[in-house]
Amino acid sequence: MNTMHHILHVDDSSRDRDLVRRALQCTSKQFSLTEAASRRDFEALMACGQYDLVLGDCNIGGFHGLQIIDTVKARHPHTPVVILTESGSAETAVEAMKRGAADFLLKTPNQLSRLPDSIQSAIEQTRLKGEQDRVDKAARRIFRARRVMAECNHAIVHANAEAQLLREMCRIMVEVGGYRMAWIGYADDSARCIRPVARAGEASRYLSELPRRRIDHADGDSPAAIAIRSGRPCVVSDVNAADAGGWRQHALNHGYLSVTSLPLRDGNKVFGALTIYEAQPHEFGPDQITMFEELANDIAYGITGFRTEVARAKADQALVETERKLAGILDSIDNIVWSASGTEFLYINAVAERIYGRPLADFYRNRDTWFSAIHPQDQPKVRAALEKLRRRGALVHEYRIVRPDGSIRWLEDKTKAVYDSAGCLLRIDGVASDISDRKNYEAHIKYMASHDALTGLANRNLLADRLAQAMLHAQRKNRMLALLVIDLDRFKDINDSVGHAFGDALLKEAAVRLQQQVRKGDTVSRQGGDEFIILLTDLNDAEGAAHIAAKILRAFAQPFMVGNQRLHITPSIGATVYPGDGADSETLLQNADIAMYRAKREIGHGNGFQFYSLEMSIRTKERIVLGNALRRAVEREEFELYYQPKIDLRSGELIGAEALIRWRSQELGMIPPSQFIPLAEEIGLIVPIGSWVLRTAFRQNKAWQDEGLRPITVSVNLSAHEFRQPGLAQSVATVLEDTGLDARYIELELTESMVMGSAEQFSTTMRALKELGVELSIDDFGTGYSCLSYLKRFPLDRLKIDRSFVRDLATDPDEAAIVRLIISLGHSLNLKVIAEGVETSEQLQFLRDAGCDEMQGHFFSEPLPAERFRELMRSAPVADVAPHR
Q1: Helix (H) or strand (E) segment spanning residue 357
Q2: What is the pTM of this model?
Q3: Exposed site from 17, 22, 755, 781, fewest CB < 10 Å?
């Protein structure tokens, strides 16, 4: 069944309104049409209602269609706009699309016939984008909750006391999860109020100003009070919409707009609550609440565990004192109390029936029923314990029993031998406690300590233990073992493009595929991030490791299905062999890591395998030397800028230059950028180097202008690391102000893949830069996504054709066609197009004929030092586009 869509049509022509009305009536799609014949009507209708789509003319009595787009987007950002006009230029159409129009149609019969489909498509695209935004937001919330759960579980494992555990839970919520505030309160039954016991964030000020919340009073309407009273999570998605109450106004005064409170329970009794506050509404979705409920249960379990340990210590002390006085049978709640002679049970309480799952009569009828229920693997241990008991007189031991349904329970049995005056054994008394929950918890904690929480693989600790054992075995048996270090190539790109939830799912699938390639006795471990290590034991020679590596490469050649997406990822594998490559685990791991990075660098894009060699360590040391020298170079400012001219292809005028960095090391001489730029990115120096380039290029351009030379635009390349830095636009503004350079004489070059990888984030930064007045260009265009829908959203000025296309365009028809297409695409978006790497007259002529605007390359000039570039500007302000050296 078609859904009725409400359309607002803005047009001051009654004839055109009638044309649209008839066009929408001649379709099976359901539209409800509201008409506005003037700007006043349009603004009044927009103020009192919301529509599924706005259809507007390009000119309504001086009110331009582009203003319609701006008005709609200002009031209802998610409402699509379609422009329908009598006539319109390509420039108007492009500008409308840039401002957010969903379509641009002419009032011709052919295009009016397309109007219903265009409206339907625009509405559907808006709906799909809204759904995707909601899915992305939910995924980010779940990832944050997962990260909090992982940190909290780690803290639970390592906490030594209840108060420490509570403080850590609140701290992790705020510092790791990024939530505004978190606190834990215990129910004070005597005062019928909630007593805060731990807090983090702005909790101290908030709680000190908030009256103590009563649990059962009419004013007990706070989320924590409701959670404790009801025993269920209390979620307030929007505090503004919550029922009036003292806590609500207090929360609003502190800027909290959503809150959830989760009960902490010991069995059926709720003894407290964990409460979390956020600054935005609707921050706690169902999936998050489910995970937080699990976390609250873990916290409560940890608290009761500490309390149980304290209670157990006190009970043990009381038991010793009572045994000295009574020397009899202790009766305790929920424990098995028993007494047996050498041939029969003298007494066993009813709890045994519940724990053992057997009738009490079975025990009285046959004393061996007790022993036969003990787990076969524990029976020898229990026999030995009974022998010790005869000698020592008292013993505490643990063992498993198997119930008739096959389930297993753990018991802790505290036993005491009772003798007569002659020293002969009369009976054995015992109190057996069901410690299954404690054992399960301990097993869970032990497993968490040795396994990766995401993939279930061995973690760093378990791998180290197994590697030590494998090395001892290899020594004794004169065998070999190998370590494979595996890194997933460009995994971060996948995380950035499809989200961390998909990234986690891909890691789990990769873990399964790795396990399928190894032998049963081998160990696959995850070290964190996208790095895995495989321990291969009991090898005859290194070929066994090469065989496994080849299997892994073949397995990863197949795509991964994650949800409904096909994801491709390749591994880089480094291998080291014991004992040939090292005598200790640290050396082996280090060498395998070196080999993995060699595999990644040798092939250039990963998907390779390398054995470790001594020569690799030498290269690694060389990189360390180069890295240290690079750090000193940053301190000493050993860099220079060269400038490569840019030429207008129509006039031959020298219109600008690209600033290119060079490093003249005091110790190592001239180092090419291809050698030190990737290293700078790897060791975190690219941002300070980039800052030096910006400041130097700005200062040099201003110096040329101060000398009276004609102003030109100098372009500077920005790295992905620089572009992701917070406050980039402010940093550029500061340099412009310090140097006194007008922003219009600066162009910032961004790589295509860098921008498209996170379009929403970069769009904001680009617009901030554009507001300063600088020009923006896409470098190396054609080598990445080349996505028109992205390009039209960005405030760009220029496209630069990558040199790889220019190199063969005179001889390769395919490359020539691509270059023509890029030029046409750029011009259609009102962008200038520049070609780099121009080296021949044939290339130059082709670019002129194709309408390319600008060029740079060795055909005119190689990159020049600042002084030589100054001479060039003075001597050749207009180029004959002839070779210049």
Answers
A1: none
A2: 0.42
A3: 22
